[in-house]
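Q: Sequence in, structure out?
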Amino acid sequence: MMCLKRFVAGLLLAACGVSPLGAQEALAPVEARVPFAPTPFAGSDGLTHLAYEFYVTNFYGDGGAMKPQGLKVFGDASSTPLLDLSAQDLSRAIGPTSTPDAPVAIAPGKRKIFFVWITLPAGAPMPHSLRHRMAFIDDKQVASLLDGAVVPVRSDKTPTLGEPLRGGRWWAHEGPGASQSHHWGSLVAVNGALTIPQRYALDLVGLDAQGHAMRPGVKDIQHSSYADWVGYGADVLAVADGVVRKVRDGEPEHQPLSPQPEPTSLTADGLFGNYVVLEIEPGVFASYAHLQRGSVKVKPGDHVHKGEVLARLGQSGNSAAPHLHFQLSNAASFEGSEGTPYVFEHFGALGPETESQVFGQGEPWKPAGIEQRTAAMPLNDIVVQFPDR
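A: Exactly. Output:
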């Protein structure tokens, strides 16, 4: 039976344009695919990135668990990998987990999802497709190899946006590049679709000049008020001309840093609290979440202009502290949508900051010299400064 499986796997690889492997290399009896092809984008580090998910399913049970020994990703027909992950690297690339350094084992009938982040070398050409090579050892110590799972690189134009908040300093928390985050790491299964609406989402937390989220004088951060938070009440701006597609207001706001109730549903109404969704291009939707109660100034069908005030930053919905949740996706609804990349026209990058530093704990934050960025996306946990206009 195993010989038949490997013969069929060889036919599938050949059908994908992948050269057959030598007889000494058993073809891995797994199903592997990329469900949503990546679109390249420029990051705040000045480099171009690709972010996507690689699904690997152990379809048969006769070999027991399949243990990945590494992953190499190649662009087009190149023999030099764009990404080379060890087995230990893979244990940290499977999204939120309580044991990030435990060896990865894919049990029979189970799937693992690897969150792939590729940083292209400066000046390197953009590949048209990606090929995956993953070695395995099963419970019987039989080695096998996956070489294929070819996926195209999307050529979609990345939208260039204005700032969602004006001036000041903002911590881009749980941003792109953090597979362990509650954004990229959150898959939503609804009505037969498994998607990641928050793949490129940002939580923008207001900071003072010292990099603190709360104003001086707060003695007990667990009992702070909204007025103690630097960003609370800031104007939330339209990032582009567009049409308002969905709005919600009137939802209560929670006490900062208080325990959060379980979401009522995996929808915008169940997660976002008060929110606005703009369609800024056909099929491109900008979502703003956790807005201040009673602050939303628009209604569905309104045409808005870039820079127009939509609402104010608050703490409604599934939110532990005042911040603006911002994301782009390919549908107006949260459930069933895929998060898509974007870049901001201009911002200053002041380097990374940790969560403890944001709350005034540990070593004081020391901002790097401000570096001006154009047409780039803030990466995870860096501090940015938007234009004050």
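Residues 208 and 230 are 7 Å apart (CA to CA).
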